[in-house]
Prior knowledge:
Number of domains: 2
Order of helices and strands: EEEHEEEHEHHEHEHHHEHEHEEEHHE
Number of helices: 12
CATH topology of the largest domain: Rossmann fold
Strand order of the largest sheet: 9-8-10-11-12-15
Distance between the termini: 35 Å
Largest sheet: 6 strands, mixed
Radius of gyration: 18 Å
Structural class: alpha/beta
Mean pLDDT: 91
Helix content: 25-40%
Number of strands: 15
Shape: globular
Low-confidence stretches: none
CATH architecture of the largest domain: 3-Layer(aba) Sandwich
Amino acid sequence: MKRVVSVSLGSSSRDHRAEVDLLGERFEIARIGVDGSIDRAIAKIKELDGTVDAIGLGGIDVYLYAGSDRYALRDGLRLLAAATATPVVDGSGLKNTLEREAIAFLQDELKIDLRGKRVLMVSALDRFGMAQALVQAGADVIFGDFIFALDLDRPVRGLDEFESMARKYLPDACKLPFQFFYPTGKKQDRAPQAKYPEYYDDAEIIAGDYHFMRQFMPERLDGKTVITNTLTERDIEFLRARGIARLVTTTPDFGGRSFGTNVVEAALVALLGKAWADVTEDDYRDLLARLALRPRVIALRQAQGDGVTV
């Protein structure tokens, strides 16, 4: 049996374990939250190093992407360096493959015409593949990274402008503690504090990291579609209560919940038996085709304007 562990800066209240079969291999998958402590995360990675097949980093990224530019987060690099024997991944490789395919799934399988759909992409830097796919599908996308992470009330609507803003702000921002941008630990459990709700209200589709979108979410989001992952049953009921019509999780259900992309990527790297740096986009695409992983779609009620209930 292969073992994959996600070490997450998130709340330990969201810990979960599951066993799944992938291409004839049995996997034990676990998520361990360290309640926002970088030091505890480093200690846990060092403890697991050499004893498991792959480690995922949850609740934090090592790399952010905007176009062809890659930005390394200081805290992410610290975690990456904590292991010397076991491959450590942050999910970014999978976000550029699996999450692009999730947008194609919406169009090809669910027959949702994304042309002109108003999309709030709350965090495109950590999901640039999804952001590109939405733009290429003709959606009217607002990139919310600088609105919500840096408190700049400046909606960015084009990929070129988004990449220009990233080059301006990211080199310095990446040196800051990760908690400056993203809710970690117990902050993931507290009630949302609405921020710039007009961008949520105007959107037909809200996409991106669940914890990032949840922390600023207004009370009502009636009829909207959410594209995200890392959802527990409690999260699903939370979104249902706010009026969400449809949930699309880009990662499949493993043992009753959708794990983060870092977990799925760790499992793929364990199957490949390669160092993370040696894995190519073609490697991921080949495995994804063989695994036939599909997004999970949960219909809660009729979604805005597409006439499709799934």
